[in-house]
What we know:
16 strands; elongated
Amino acid sequence: xxxxxxxxxxxxxxxxxxxxxxxxxxxxxxxxxxxxxxxxxxxxxxxxxxxxxxxxxxxxxxxxxxxxxxxxxxxxxxxxxxxxxxxxxxxxxxxxxxxxxxxxxxxxxxxxxxxxxxxxxxxxxxxxxxxxxxxxxxxxxxxxxxxxxxxxxxxxxxxxxxxxxxxxxxxxxxxxxxxxxxxxxxxxxxxxxxxxxxxxxxxxxxxxxxxxxxxxxxxxxxxxxxxxxxxxxxxxxxxxxxxxxxxxxxxxxxxxxxxxxxxxxxxxxxxxxxxxxxxxxxxxxxxxxxxxxxxxxxxxxxxxxxxxxxxxxxxxxxxxxxxxxxxxxxxxxxxxxxxxxxxxxxxxxxxxxxxxxxxxxxxxxxxxxxxxxxxxxxxxxxxxxxxxxxxxxxxxxxxxxxxxxxxxxxxxxxxxxxxxxxxx
Length: 424
Ligand code: ATP
Ligand code: MG
């Protein structure tokens, strides 16, 4: 026998036993986004490499070491998208969606990063993301954050997540702060680890969110970004906080929250959980007022976030929040004897016409009652509908309830749709 071929490391299959949880999560994401006035956009999975270099930043982890980049057959450098914001901006720009108008968009799909695979961290993973363009005021910041809070409420995990909030100020304020921070870090260089020494030169704000306790020790007394804010940045952030307060959305101010991507300014936020171990961030985002212009469009403010669907699914599973997921099959149709089969299939089609949302599975492959009942049980269906020769003569089916205590009953053919309605 030849050797079987395995999936690429860090790229997972999503099996039928999990896809129903995924579908439940996806349907909540879609519904909530559209209830807040956001429309779906779908971008290609492959983009020009330059798009990510120019937006995410040359010296970020993603661009430095995580991208799947390759040459197309004609020599163009292409990259499997590591995130969705830059492609979304590219698409909105290219299609004239940002010209003197506001846009509220969402997307969902696979992203690719060459990271070390572990629980909650994969090389192909899935994000749901949402971007609001053309609104510079803090109302949209709070509106989008409250949308995320609603997601957790609807998924039943709001007790298990906390919101961390920070402001990065304007680009000018950050540049001034950066100089002060570098001066401070330079004096303490020997206390920094290799990673932080490197970041001090390339992306010094990232030193702030180092996980190394020794580095955190060295940061005691470091200058604070908020001390460099002008009136406008202060007021913007105060407004966001005030609005969240009035909506009863709790948050923790975290002045070490800087985000790994270069394009953020002003409000940034993350939702974190302690129920996933090291990979505790489930959702992250913020304001990026310079990005559209940086990618060649007309200056347009933006605010958005992305969440990791795998981490949500892991969380729902570990918190056992998946009981309300609908099984793959609602009703299983058992047919006994060759003479009833043609009628059974006709009946099934009539019932499907009558109750299009019911998941009715016909038994295929023949066999006796015992075999068919076994399949019915395994399917997860709530009821087995049984048609034998006697039943056909009486124009009735026998209904066996597979879950719960209901007694077996006999139902006229035309009553079956009523029963199926109740199963949905
Ligand atoms: P982390 O700090 O965990 O590496 P990140 O800052 O790189 O996250 P973002 O680029 O902000 O993450 O992506 C938003 C969300 O996408 C994350 O909060 C996380 O839920 C998810 N995510 C990011 N990278 C991965 C990955 N390799 N595998 C699974 N989910 C991921
Ligand atoms: Mg990362």
